[in-house]
Amino acid sequence: MGEKSSPGEMDMNEGTVAMLIQWCTLCLVWMGSLDRLARALGMSRRRLLAVIAGFLLSSFANWTLAFAPVTVSVSGTLLPLLACAWLYGHLPYDKRRICLVAAGIVASFLFWLRWLFFNDPVLLVWDERVLLPAAAVILVMMVGRNPLPQLFALLLSQVLSDAIHGFFFWRWAKTCQLGSPYAQDLLWSGLSYWMLVCLVWLTAQKKSGWNNAEPSGTEDV
To answer: How far apart are CA 204 and CA 197, in angstroms?
Structure first.
């Protein structure tokens, strides 16, 4: 079911925002601007480049898997779920359950907020691609100070929220598209906000001396 437009809605084709953010992120990783964040996630620059490039390629090609009447996007659903699986495997054991619960709570809130905006567009003081990702980032920042569980909760909650939204409106639309270009805009807008907040936080930590010890072994060799 299509999204209702609003006076403040961005005049841009669905999926364009996601591809622009992916391309900008790829450039930033290549230049080393995100090395500090990559180290916090326990990833090398080379691996992070490969992940972003995979997202960008699948978004550009618009690869999908069809299980009529459900269509699943590779870049919008499958790749984020694979990333969640990798992140989950690297989470501390004592953090895994709380991260899963947090992702479920955030996903439920995002679906409720999206449903509320759909039924009462006057509440949309700004575009959904700004409000929903911003709300998601604010909520996942409460999971902890470590970027790893934050990223896991952010990715999983947005994928779950999109799935709930798709199946909920299935009764009217008669089709269900998971990971649509619009959902990818929401996902990558949230990731861009989260990266900005994390970089500011990590920089503040280094300047203040709160956490001088950074993980090693993630250099791009």
So the answer is: 11
